[in-house]
Amino acid sequence: MGGLDLGVHLLHTGAALSVVLFIAAAGGRTARLMHQPRVIGEIIAGLLAGPAVIFLFGEETFHVLLPGTVLDVLTLIGQTGLILFLVGLAHKLRTGSGSPSRGTVWTAAGALVAPLLSGVLLVCWIVATDDAAVRGNAPFLAFLLIVAVAMSITAVPVLARILTDRGISETAAGQAALGSAVVIDVVGWVLLTVAIGLGTGDHTSSMHSARALLTGVVCALAIRYILRLDAARVMCRRLPRGTAVLLAAAALGVAFTVEHMGMTSILGAALVGLAVPGGPDAPWGRAVTAVSRFGRALIPAFFVVTGITVLQQAFASVSWMLVGLTVLLGCAGKGLGGYAGARLGGHAPGAAARVGVLMNTRGLTELIVLQAGYEAGLLAAPLVLALIVMALATTVMTGPLLDLLDSKAGHPDAGSAPAETESGIR
């Protein structure tokens, strides 16, 4: 590629990325005007941008606006953003997963077991309909487990944002929901790893996956050892920005190495985030937040690429009965399971109902899980579309359902303490 061609390519890529970020920002602002989490607007706008252009102007015009070389760069940018964001998300899960209370354990159990069972019911329906386009060709146990995990996820960042925006982070319902969501997502990441491992199908592939996972664990442990050194702590305090850059580079290196060896880069990023030391005396909070914020700024490219590569082919083959059933099971599993778990944990009926509603918040974390399952060949595009609709629908329902519960109770369920702001992770 000559100098002039390279310059044109860079300008084209920069313009495409600018449009993507503008679309995401517009979607986010629209969502806030509708009293919805900003990330929901960004996700919907990003996912629909590519298919909308293709539908309105045709594939030829789309490929002129976004040729394959530019799309490849946007794919890399979106993957980079996802990896860096996951470092912060995994670190947040780790530092927030202290010793849970008895009530939190019961709530988490209800909000995890019931959705897992709803995932089993969804798989049974898919197998009964014998739709190969939805079933795909993944090994049955891996397929069953990834669908169950996708139905059970609660998005900790989006849930925390909703609790903060509504001023209910210090209420019994808010604390129970957030604590349970952390526990559920930790278990979910473990089950996701198992599902991807089962999805290899044969002995040789299983060995490759095990080697990739072991490499990721060793690299993460090495990063953890380095970060615990006094010299690393001093560097972090004196040069926080430089430390953030090095941490980002390490996360990208581990993630892409794990991907090159046969596992998804998402697991490599999560391992690095879990490896970063936590605790009140650890100076890594600012560096992790900076890395996650930068990744979060690039994630709209991931939404757009997902809409082009996954949803475009899924729209033509998806069964809307599948979408409806997925949404119904998603609502019932989380809502009823969360309510039952909260009641067993000692919460009053009103607080338990709010917990059930809050546990249905899925958002971006669900898309990450679905991307991992899609990349690993465990989920077919039509089922990914159905699960995305379920994730967005259940998250959008959260605010209106909380308003309905508040109106029936005669007062908002607000906490007495001021709401805390999030550390850049939405």
TrEMBL record:
PANTHER family given in the database record: CATION/H + ANTIPORTER, K(+)_H(+) ANTIPORTER 1
Origin: domain of life: Bacteria
Record keywords, A-Z: Ion transport, Membrane, Transmembrane, Transmembrane helix, Transport
Transmembrane portions of the chain: 6-27, 39-58, 70-91, 103-128, 140-164, 176-198, 210-227, 239-258, 294-315
Pfam families: Na_H_Exchanger
Presence of keyword Transmembrane: yes
Membrane topology: Multi-pass membrane protein
Native source species: Streptomyces sodiiphilus
Protein's name according to its UniProt entry: Cation:proton antiporter
Main location: membrane
Compartments in which it is found: Membrane
UniProt keyword Transmembrane, yes or no: yes
Domain Cation/H+ exchanger transmembrane: residue ranges: 21-401
